[in-house]
ATP-binding cassette domain-containing protein
Amino acid sequence: MLEVEHLSAWYDRKNPVVRDASFGISPGEAVGLIGVNGAGKTTMLKALCHAHRGCSVGALRYRGRPVTPATAAFKRQRYLALAEDSSFPTWSLDTFVRFLGRAYGARRRARLLDELVEGFDFGRYRGAPFASLSSGSRKKASLIAAFHAQVDILLLDEPVDFLDFSATEYLYQRILAAKEHGQAVLLSSHIAESFTRCTSRLLVLSSGSLSAPVPTPADSRDVASLIA
Ligand SMILES: Nc1ncnc2c1ncn2[C@@H]1O[C@H](COP(=O)(O)OP(=O)(O)OP(=O)(O)O)[C@@H](O)[C@H]1O
């Protein structure tokens, strides 16, 4: 689905945060991205999504076709749910989803939206401005929008943060369902269980370099030891 070769990203060009990262994700696969705080995970995900200015990529292929992070056909098929998002403070979920429908040229899927709202127990906040939501509810709104978009490539940056237990379980179910539907998922997290539950391979970002993928260990403690 996605092949990335030699992606570098920086705030100071002389000192890149991510250097020469290369990886691929297949349809129906969830891959984990791990690294200590400040390793560069968010920067890398933003760079892939044309949301970070300081970056270069040797080659990027979406379904085998060469693209750039700015190519419209690629942008319509990838969605980045950020770890923290304070954009559109006056908008509600319904307003945001309508906006995304126009931006992504996608029709509104009322049944799917209702299902996601119910699954994340978000019903009472549906019309509330984002600025009025708790951190967990704001995260739920972001995830509902991401799964509703039904794009080929879902990039989820620390999606578990702030979620309560049942929302976390529902998130894992949705990731597994996304895989079943053939979507590709790249997931960053500091919760080892997210990877053992949802991913088959892990990428480790350390000192600016991305490792070759390793199979996700079955035991959460072995996930943590990969970045120790
Ligand atoms: N706007 C910025 N200007 C300068 N440096 C920044 C900026 N944003 C992030 N950085 C630095 O870039 C590095 C990578 O940050 P990034 O947020 O990508 O890491 P991360 O792996 O997502 O971290 P975390 O797990 O803590 O969320 C860090 O050293 C961070 O301090």
Notes: Residues 11, 17, 35, 37-43, 83 surround adenosine-5'-triphosphate (CB under 6 Å). The mean pLDDT is 96.
